[in-house]
Amino acid sequence: MNKNISTFIACDAEYDESKIVIFGAPFDSTTSYRPGTRFGSSAIRNESFGIETFSPYTDRDLLDTKIFDAGDLELCMGSSELALKDIEEFTDKVLEDGKIPFMIGGEHLVTLGSVRSVFRKYPDLHIIHFDAHADLRDDYLGVKLSHACVLHRCHDLVGDGKIFQFGIRSGDREEFRWGKDRVYTNRFNFDTLEDVVTKLKGKPVYFTLDLDVLDPSVFPGTGTPEADGVSFRDLINAVKLVSELDIVGLDMNELCPVYDQSGASTALACKLLREILLMIYKF
Questions:
Q1: pLDDT for res 232
Q2: DSSP the chain
Q3: pTM, 2 dp
């Protein structure tokens, strides 16, 4: 792979020597409310030079890591399945080379492409999901490949008892009923996360983080904002717990920069990405 010209700050190592590979999935064709998340990954990359490489939270520095930024994939906006196929194939390549794929969305449907690939390599895959929305509908207006259905489609792969959701505070009544006996859902916060992390020690975990888990007072730049979200500090502490697990793939999605002209939401996403990288990186 060739090095991307524009990279997330300090993530400019050579592909062969890298442990983590970042790539953007600029896709938002199934967005049900406000579009624009296709610009999220490039905005994070472009604005990352407004933050430091050093983290006061971990006392670690991105300058001491080997991370490759592959840039944005060129995804078909007219076909969800073709876009997911391209994501899946790219993730296959990263996994085959013994690296951790870290995808930046884009709308939440992009998670399915990466999960398909990771599940094929790790059949006992478990998923930790941070989000405001359950995303467990079987279809949305007749469409099964929608960001409102992505965790249902992931469940189609991994099965019962393998998905653990946190921060959930929105969803259709029927999807909550459907999910009750199939997925673990901690509504509103991360209160039981420590217990779940203890349970998942030693198991392969995919971590998907929808940024709208944050309260819109601190993160308005998203397509489907929901009141009563978590704080940035709560999220950082939760990510630290998750980083104790065997993370074999992950993503961060749903930044919609056009809905926060101040740039604060993008700056938050940049800082959060730095922290996640430094927490999961094996020094």
A1: 98
A2: -PPPSS-STT-B--GGG-SEEEEEE---TT-SS---GGGHHHHHHHHGGGS-SEETTTTEEGGG--EEEEEE----TT-HHHHHHHHHHHHHHHHHTT-EEEEEESSTTHHHHHHHHHHHH-TT-EEEEE-SB----S-BTTBSSSTTSHHHHHHHHH-TT-EEEEEE-B--HHHHHHHTTTSEEEESS-TTHHHHHHHHTTSEEEEEEEGGGB-TTT---SSS--SS-B-HHHHHHHHHHHTTSEEEEEEEE---GGG-TTSHHHHHHHHHHHHHHHHH---
A3: 0.97
